[in-house]
Amino acid sequence: MEGEDKVVQEKLSVLELANTLGNVSEACRQKKISRAQFYNYRRRFENYGLEGLKNRPTIHESHPSTTPKAVAKRIVELSYQHPAWGRLRLSKHLALMGISVSGPTIQKILRRHRVGTRNDRWLTLEERAQEASTQLSLEQMKWLEGQNPCFRERHQESSHPGELLCQGTFYIGHSQELGAVQMQAVVDLYGSYAFGRVHTGAASDHAVLLLNNKVIPFYTERGLKPKAILTGSGREYNGKKMHPYSLYLNLVGIEHQKIRGKKTQIHGFFERFRRTVLDEFVPRAFPQNSNTPLKTVQANLEGWLTHYNMERPHYGYRNMGQRPIEFIENYFKQGPPRQGTATVEEEPRYP
Questions:
Q1: pLDDT per position as a tens digit, 79-102
Q2: Which helix (DSSP H) or strand (DSSP E) does residue 175 occupy?
Q3: Are 272 and 168 in contact, with CB atoms under 8 Å apart?
């Protein structure tokens, strides 16, 4: 009973703190609970008093409304087989099999098995793909490639840091003073370590500056030398014999590889980095039509890249939870990481 009283007092203290502060969000932050939990406590307290704040007994497995284990297992397996399906489509599919389960119940079962979101199913499927005995369908493979562009490149392994880099340019926003602002970026296809530079004007000059000031020194400090760089067919990387980018690569002895045709996506690793920049960095550090000076945007980018490379775990293929710098450091400690291979019903060929 003493433990139960303590639980009641803790929940009651949250309600009292919110009343004292006059701010539910601040009370939730201090007590480290969600707003949903707070309103649940308040509703139960208003309806049942202190009794309502006591922990409710768990439902026994033999409760009449409990979904049979065999059905729950079938639901989870269906979510793996068809990862793009939501709870309503799963419910309709089960109904065709003579199994009646509501959408909310299906969602609860999926959450219980940690596959309740697309992100959860993505990571779980990729973990399965690392197992040599796992056979993934074409539907699963295509879905994984859509979730994680890096997964498209699983047949093109890079054996060590700097063996193959990918360089490209993409638009990040508009400044009222400077006009269109672009980012010049380089991504190492071994571990996704990335470099970036924001700029306006001639992209070829900034492409060379990024390589000379950031990329080459990074590998030199580690006793490495970039072997090759993959780029698109844009004018910032290609041109006549005296093109500054080509001249620089020849000077430092780096092979220039080019994407054939007019593909907008240079490489899966680069595409994932571009998505991450646009989703995480741009909205916070460079809001559209802002007056932020270019030097400030670059300084913000440097801070964000430090977080991206040194602190942020990268889930899914290829890092599988390792930070880019950790992936590189592990190479020096134990050599190239061992990657599992997945078998498929038929080798998929996507452009």
A1: 988 998 999 999 999 998 888 999
A2: strand 165-175
A3: no
